[in-house]
């Protein structure tokens, strides 16, 4: 496991500094296992996903804060690392190890994973490492690290992205339809995933449309379960404003 990573009560730390509060330990003490976000106080139903959900569970190291959230005072070091990942492939090693640590320490309990896969990108969407100049898919790099630390074998490419698309500004149902049309399962994958539990890796879950579209396609070919594992779950500020006494307190040990 990556040296310097550890869990202390409600937080994951790196080299003595908190990376993020665990999704499972926000003040409400409740979270949605399906989409991976803390729930409002007293609520057992999640307002952040709908009936189109095909992912069986979402796991994340912690919350990812958008620029809008940071302007409201929210933030953590995990968000900074995820942003750095867009320019440095090395960050995938630390983030992937942090993801694996949560499974090994029992924060998230998954013991039935048969196949590790990842959200694909088109070549023109690859990030560029600022030091080496090499292009990379951050989801694949995270999947490699997670699979290595959990001894799950090498990640398998199961789907390809057939066309570029953007989901910003669309309704949830529109996002799902567009994402569903944007991916196709690779040939000869069915035998690898039939009656299997699949771990789908990405850097961030926002609406969940991409992961759910891929999960739906994998299940159509016989996958038993599809778990989504991300470095960060995009924070819904309206919920955090309700469950945290103040923005700083949400991520303060």
UniProtKB/TrEMBL annotation:
Transmembrane segments: none annotated. It comes from the Archaea. InterPro entries: ComF/GntX_DNA_util-trans (IPR051910), PRTase-like (IPR029057), PRTase_dom (IPR000836). This is Amidophosphoribosyltransferase (ComF). Belongs to the ComF/GntX family. It comes from Thermoproteus tenax (strain ATCC 35583 / DSM 2078 / JCM 9277 / NBRC 100435 / Kra 1).
């Amino acid at each position: 496991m990556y040296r310097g990573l550890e869990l202390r009560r409600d937080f994951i730390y790196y080299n003595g500094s908190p990376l993020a509060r665990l999704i499972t330990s926000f003040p409400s003490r409740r979270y949605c296992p399906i989409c991976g976000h803390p729930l409002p106080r007293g609520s057992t139903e999640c307002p952040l996903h709908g009936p189109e959900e095909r992912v069986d569970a979402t796991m994340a190291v912690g919350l990812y804060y958008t620029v809008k959230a940071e302007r409201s005072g929210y933030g953590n070091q995990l968000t900074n690392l995820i942003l750095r990942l867009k320019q440095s492939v090395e960050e995938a090693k630390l983030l992937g190890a942090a993801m694996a640590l949560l499974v090994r320490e029992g924060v998230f309990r998954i013991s039935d994973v048969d196949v590790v896969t990842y959200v694909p990108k088109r070549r023109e969407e690859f990030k560029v490492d600022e030091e080496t100049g090499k292009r990379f898919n951050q989801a694949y790099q995270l999947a490699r690290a997670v699979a290595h630390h959990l001894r799950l074998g090498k990640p398998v490419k199961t789907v390809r992205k057939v066309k570029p698309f953007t989901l910003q500004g669309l309704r949830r149902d529109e996002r799902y339809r567009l994402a569903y049309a944007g991916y196709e399962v690779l040939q000869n994958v069915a035998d690898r995933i039939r009656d299997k539990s699949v771990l789908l890796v990405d850097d961030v879950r926002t609406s969940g449309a991409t992961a759910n579209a891929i999960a739906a396609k994998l299940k159509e070919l016989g996958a038993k379960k599809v778990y989504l594992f991300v470095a960060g779950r995009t924070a819904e500020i309206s919920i955090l404003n309700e469950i945290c006494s103040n923005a700083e307190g949400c991520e303060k040990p």
